[in-house]
Amino acid sequence: MAKKAVTPRMPAAPPSFRILMIASEAQPFSKTGGLADVATALPKALGRLGHDVTLITPRYRGAPDGPVAGTVAVEVAGHRFSARLLEQPIGRGARVLLLDCPDLYDRDGIYYEAGVDYPDNAIRYAFLSAAAIDYAAQQPQPFDIVHTHDWQGGLAPLYARALGPPGTPGTVLTIHNLAYQGIFAKSWVPRLGLRWDDFTIGGFEFFDRLGFLKAGLNFADAITTVSPTYADEIQRPEYGHGLDGVIRSRHDRLTGILNGIDLDEWNPAADPHLPAPFDIDHLPAKAASKRALLERFGIAVTDETLARPIVGMVSRMVDQKGLDLIAAVAGPLASLDATFTIVGTGEPRYQDMWRRLSQWRPDRISAFIGFDEPRAHLVEAGADMFLMPSRFEPCGLNQMYSLRYGTIPIVRAVGGLVDTVRPYNPKNGQGNGFLFSEYEPGVMLRTIAAALAAFPNKKIWTRLQKNGMRANFSWDRSAAEYVKIYTRLRPARTKRRAPASKRVEGR
């Protein structure tokens, strides 16, 4: 008897999500740090995976205009703010809506001016979250997920309650840097439409003040951070910044997902900022970028300077990034047989330190105070080594850029640096960089010296470069991990949700 043919069961199609993302900065519209890169790269990657992503971010001074995709009007702290939402497509399935409210965002700085935070930052970023939720309430097709970032979006999980059951979206908070928490006087609680019932240790009370980030930590359905190691570190007092207990209490909702990098923007084979392309099979062409780097930083191009290793840095000049370690051994560092090219801005004392070093050793040290994207790309491509001696580093992107460009990282073994840089093993040639654990100036200096000692062995150095260039830091890999979280949070939808109030005050 003939067997009945069995039609193979096709695997179920993965779910498709409508995602509302909220971030206080997004490249290329605004940027102070890695959050801006993530805020656009992640939506683009999710869009490539077939999801529909809308990112809402402020339109700061200098950001482009665009077609109006909607308007919002929300009352915050006794004033009714209105804003247009200006659309900017960023890729298949992904778009940015610039929240155009000049009263709040058309300023010289993003978060501060002359080193001082804007006094109305509580209003500015409460409005960002409330306006995003108000926009969501207007849509005929509801969002499945509200995914917000850092303290500036910390109130979004609370305001999302206004969307109300049935069909309330799942809420996700991503921590990019726990050191920045958005702490304000408790008098803001009623002014921002929050409930005194939630002003508790288990809510958003932080030492008798209002904590935006703590609100997100306690009220989001899921919490992510930007590397697996950092997810472990922030549950300990030395890295928890006073919130380690909160995070431990919600560890079952915490996931560390390593950031990716934009492989189109950071591609040495097609980088418009470089004098010549190169890749893993054409490493000698990297030498053209080294020559151009010396020229750009005003260092004489000679056989000697081309042969000498270049150590690059692109960094905020703050203690977190290890600038205090560098300051402690500035003299010995400047005496090493290396050239240093620096791009960054930050605390005046560290800016002045690099200026003084540049004046003292103009043949060996050159610093550009400020941020310049073409220079940053040229440092990544033209340097032989990249220094990141961070006190803590939630993820870090520059070490991944460096690896992709065949530039060997010298990093402290913390956070995402541990998850991406593998220590060089002289016995078997494995690894892709140099790491040190103790946060001590002398230990950092000895690690730099070890890298410089390895540099003349071109066979070993080329192996290190190729080990790094083979690593996969695609955002598609990271985005797939976020989709797993969204899948766990996908709400059951039985009918269209009721519209939310357009009022924050007294909600």
Describe it.
This protein is an alpha/beta fold. The chain has 2 domains: 18-260 and 479-489, 3-Layer(aba) Sandwich (Rossmann fold), CATH 3.40.50.2000; 283-469, Rossmann fold (3-Layer(aba) Sandwich), CATH 3.40.50. It contains 20 helices and 20 strands. It has helices at residues 34-48, 102-105, 121-138, 156-159, 188-191, 212-219, 228-233, 237-240, 244-249, 287-296, 303-307, 323-328, 330-334, 348-360, 373-382, 398-404, 415-420, 441-454, 458-469, 475-489, and strands spanning 18-22, 52-58, 68-76, 79-91, 94-100, 112-113, 116-117, 145-149, 170-175, 183-185, 205-206, 209-211, 222-225, 254-256, 310-317, 339-346, 365-369, 385-388, 408-412, 434-436. The strands form 4 sheets. It has a 9-stranded mixed β-sheet with strand order 3-4-5-2-1-8-9-13-14, with helices on both faces. Strands 17-16-15-18-19-20 form a 6-stranded parallel β-sheet, sandwiched between helices. It has a 3-stranded antiparallel β-sheet with strand order 10-12-11. Strand 3 (68-76) and strand 4 form a beta hairpin. Helix 1 (34-48) packs across helix 20 and helix 10 crosses helix 15. The chain is globular. Residues 1-8 and 492-507 have low confidence and may be disordered.
